Amino acid sequence: MVDILDKKQNKMDKMFLIAGPCAIEERETAFFIAEKVKDICDRLDIHYIFKGSYRKANRTRLDSFTGIGDDLALEILKDVGEHFKIDTITDIHESYEAEKVAKYVNHIQIPAFLCRQTELLLAAGKTGLPINIKKGQFLSPEAMQFALDKVYSTGNKNAFLCERGTSFGYSDLIVDATSLTRMKRLGAPVVMDCTHSVQKPNQNTGITGGDPEMIEIMALTAAVNGADGLFIETHPEPHRAKSDAQTMLKLDKLEDILEKVIRIRKTLA
Q1: Residue 244 Ramachandran class (φ > 0 left, ψ -120 to 50 alpha, else beta)
Q2: I need a surface site. Which of 11, 55, 173, 240 has the fewest CB within 10 A?
């Protein structure tokens, strides 16, 4: 595991990307995405963290896809990391998951809805792994200090904060570009979730909508505003994905977006 938060290793001058499918669907797709994204990141000198949810625990509808089985999905995550020699991340929803999941991945993610759950944050922190805490759609940037404090209280200082939009009415999100700057003042690296920030939640169908064409705008805006990393869920055929099919970026569009982001970062350096 490369510690992307260790400034002594000069890693904060290097952008990192958290990317992969919304959920682990099966081995072939996970490996295909990881290989393609790794190749792009290697060429652009981006630190890559492969992302895939091993279980989807916060679906709206009872019949929504939740996973292929915890152990199988976690084994795929572990195999991806070992095969491509890349970092991996998945989200946890309850405190008891932390210890088990930490044996398969080397980063842990806290979902936005759960960013105030004390026992969850403490359990994640105690693993010693870097923790990506997503900002709740209902919180100010400054309120994320308290989530950081909970992780830091375990002695784990490897935490970063992720912006993913703020609830706007019942079925939309709005992104405040100043949130990245305000969260950076808390002393932790910040990530822009370019995928979930363009979601359209609470649709009458019970399936979250979205506008993936706006993912590029979110990524470029984040680069201008000094984001340390980007979060982009991607899939070779989003319409066939079993989770978040309407929000993921088509894989063949990722490289162009990242090239533009790197040019912006170099211009501002």
Answers
A1: left
A2: 240
Per residue in 150-185, pLDDT (tens digit) is 999 999 999 999 999 887 878 788 899 899 999 999
Give the integer Cα–Cα distance in Å for 180 and 203.
28
Predicted confidence (pLDDT) per residue in 135-149, tens digit: 999 999 999 999 999
Residue 140 lies in a domain: yes
Counting Cα atoms < 13 Å in the Cβ hemisphere of 73 gives: 21
- Strand-pair category, 47-51 with 190-193: unpaired
What does the DSSP 8-state code read for residue 171? S
DSSP string covering 47-115: EEEEE-BS-----SSTTS---S-HHHHHHHHHHHHHHHT-EEEEE--STTHHHHHTTT-SEEEE-GGGT
6 inside domain: no
- Identify the CATH number of the domain in which residue 226 sits: 3.20.20.70
| Local structure of 185: helix, strand or coil | coil
The conformation of residue 249, written as its DSSP 8-state character, comes to E
Which token pair is 42? Answer: 């290697």
Q: How many domains does the chain have?
A: 1
- Pairing mode of beta strands 209-210, 199-200: antiparallel
- 138 domain residue, yes or no: yes
Distance of CA 218 to the CA centre of its chain: 14
86 Cβ contact partners less than 8 Å away, ≥ 6 residues apart: 34, 38, 48, 49, 50, 80
Residue 126 lies in domain: 11-268
